[in-house]
Amino acid sequence: MNTRYRVTIQGIVQGVGFRPFIYQQARARRLTGFVTNTSHGVELEIEGPDPALDDFLRAIRQEAPPLSRITSIQVQPLPTEGDGEFQIRKSRAQETRSALISPDTAVCPDCLRELRDPLDRRYRYPFINCTNCGPRYTIIRDIPYDREKTTMAPFALCPACAAEYADPFNRRFHAQPNACWQCGPQVALHDQGGGRIATPDPLAETARLLQEGWIVAVKGLGGFHLAVEADREEAVRRLRARKQREEKPLALMCPDLETVRSLAWVEEEEAEALGSRERPIVLLRKKEPNPIAPSVAPGNRYFGVMLPYTPLHYLLLDQGLEALVMTSGNLSEEPICIDNDEAFERLGGIADYFLVHNRDIHLRSDDSIVQRVSGALRPLRRSRGFVPVPIFLAEPIAPVLACGAELKNTVCLTKGDRAFISQHIGDLENLETLNFFKLTIAHLKQILQIEPEVIAYDLHPDYLSTRFALEQTGIELIGVQHHFAHLAGCLAEHGLNEKVIGLSLDGSGYGTDGQIWGGEVLVGDLGSFERRGHLEYLPLPGGARAIREPWRMAVSYLYQAYGEDLFDQPLPLLKHCERSKIELLLQMIRKGINSPLTSSCGRLFDGVAALIGLKETVAYEGQAAMELEMIQGGDPEAPYAVEVVGDAGVYRILPQPIIRRVVEDLGRGISRERISRRFHLTVVEAFTRVCVRLRDDTGLEKVALGGGVFQNRTLLTEMEARLNREGFKVYSKSLVPTNDGGISLGQAVAAHYIRQNNRKGPA
Question: What CATH homologous superfamily does 534-731 map to?
Answer without folding.
Answer: ATPase, nucleotide binding domain (3.30.420.40)
